[in-house]
From TrEMBL:
Protein name as it appears in the record: AB hydrolase-1 domain-containing protein
Taxonomic lineage: Eukaryota, Viridiplantae, Streptophyta, Embryophyta, Tracheophyta
One Pfam family per UniProt: Abhydrolase_1
InterPro entries: AB_hydrolase_1, AB_hydrolase_fold
Organism: Dendrobium nobile
Location of the AB hydrolase-1 domain: 99-355
Keywords recorded for this protein, A-Z: Membrane, Transmembrane, Transmembrane helix
UniProt biased composition (Low complexity): 1-16
Membrane-crossing residue ranges in chain numbering: 30-51
Stretches for region Disordered: 1-20
Signal sequence residues: none
Amino acid sequence: MAAPGASRKISAASARAHTRKKQKSSSFPVIRGIVSKLSVVLLVGVVAWLYNAARPPPPNICGTPNGPPVTSPRIKLNDGRHLSYIETGVSKEKARYKVIFIHGFDCCKHDVFPVSQEILDEFGIYLLSFDRAGYGESDPNPKLSVKSIAEDVEELADKMALGSKFYLMGFSMGGAYVWSCLKYIPHRLAGAGLVSPGSNYWWPSFPKNLSSDAYRSRLAQDQWAIRVAHYAPSLTYWWNTQKWFRPLSVIAASTNILSDKDRELLPKILARKQYQAQVRQQGEFYSLHRDLIVAYCSWEFDPMDLKNPFPDSKGSVHLWHGSQDQAVNVSLSRYISQKLPWVQYHEVPDGGHFFPHADGMSDTIVKALVLGDQ
Ligand SMILES: *[C@@H]1O[C@H](CO)[C@@H](O)[C@H](O)[C@H]1NC(C)=O
Ligand SMILES: *[C@@H]1O[C@H](CO)[C@@H](O)[C@H](O)[C@H]1NC(C)=O
């Protein structure tokens, strides 16, 4: 009797325990289930919101019915895109030197260096400046890359019938893309000039301490924008359009990156106001953000591994940098010039990022480029 009683007791106790357990385990998983369902919903919501916020609106293509007008001549590339250009200097038939200019970030073809008419005439220089893909009146390139920019330059030269060789001059981020041309189309170049060129902090040849020092000498907001472009390129549009953190200073039209010397040149730089609206007219994503992503992605080559494109001295490569440049730290250009002895390095004492706008500087640059030995 004791046994069954005990057994009953035990079973009753275990039944109660079981019930308690059941009650416990029946309420918590429900709450846990609700919480985890809620967090999934929340996560999906955040992802959906971010996905929407990160997705740029479609481009406002030049020359389409609702798009901005086409005001300059354009060539049509083999893939159907147009590139818009302006020509200055002597006619290309008469020219002794044909120079293509590659503009910088948040710029356009009208930002070509102010080379004087006297120098253009005296030396017989034809100067061609074009809107890079997505800027101004040139169609955006969904496949924009470090290489595609060099290919655009080559195709532009061929469509414009510039002949087998031409000179190249690039400013700021346009200077960085001169490296692309030295990599992919060196046989087409008669000479090249990089002026206040941008550098990519992830080029492997830079010593870590050097690139991180140069990187940290930038404004904090620019460090963040570059970090996002490099590590999370698909968030670049969102980062530079959201309102909580400050975007890249240039995008926000901040003048914080101007050195004292640059500020002296402000009246000349502000002449850009006449055409500034053209720069981003097709959409900031298609002009600025794609440019940022390509400039700061992991490049498929390191410029410091390039071989001398002119071993026979029938051409030269010049690199100009102002020692007071606050947009792109001079230390990286100094290092590149040490690594590449075939680059003729010109450091401009007291020069800021925009030193080519100082009196006579653009003339000096273009003369050195075409004469090769200055
Ligand atoms: C980086 O480190 C090297 C040696 O490791 C040193 O020679 C060089 O001066 C350092 N450069 C900077 C910018 O700190
Ligand atoms: C360039 O970076 C160095 C640190 O590497 C810093 O000392 C210097 O002030 C920076 N130059 C400019 C003009 O910002």
